[in-house]
Amino acid sequence: MEQKKEFWIAFGINFFFPGGGHIYAGDSHKGVRLLVFYLISWVLTPFIYVPGFVVVGVWIYALVKSREVVDTYNNKIEAEKEAAVKEEEKSITPEQFVSAINKANQLYVSEMISEPEFKVKKQTIISEFQFKKFIGDKDDLLLGLAPLKKNGTISEDELQEIKKILLSMN
What we know:
It is a single chain. The chain has 2 domains: about 5-85, no CATH class; about 95-170, no CATH class. About 75% of the residues lie in helices and about 0% in strands. It has helices at about 5-15, 20-25, 30-50, 50-65, 65-90, 95-110, 115-130, 140-150, 155-170; strands at about 90, 135. The chain has a two-stranded parallel sheet. Helix 1 (about 5-15) packs antiparallel against helix 5, helix 3 (about 30-50) packs antiparallel against helix 4 and helix 6 (about 95-110) packs antiparallel against helix 7.
């Protein structure tokens, strides 16, 4: 994942190379246009009388827009991170599923939750499973559940419900 950009770095680059800060902050199209326009204006000033305020105007524009271009880039990075987190929350691996049931069982065995609370927690885990994107091998999940079935943590009915959910997944 990309890192956030700093305003003062973009501002500093734009100070010496108008448009360079935009390139640094991910807006390379506008940055290149600004830089090329600035350089052409600067080079052509003595020959075709491009007023100096055009050169200075481009320079000031690049400096003023430094904050906006960095904020736009950083907001995009934040949105991508949030989208990745949301996508991760929607998915589940065999290890995560088995671990969730094991954790609920450990809470029950250590008497941190009651048997009814354990059953509700376990049923919630199984029910939410059908709405997740399953990432992994279905056989790995069944192998992970085998010890839980053997020690009575999950019942035959719950195992059949999990299998039914697995079959409905593509």
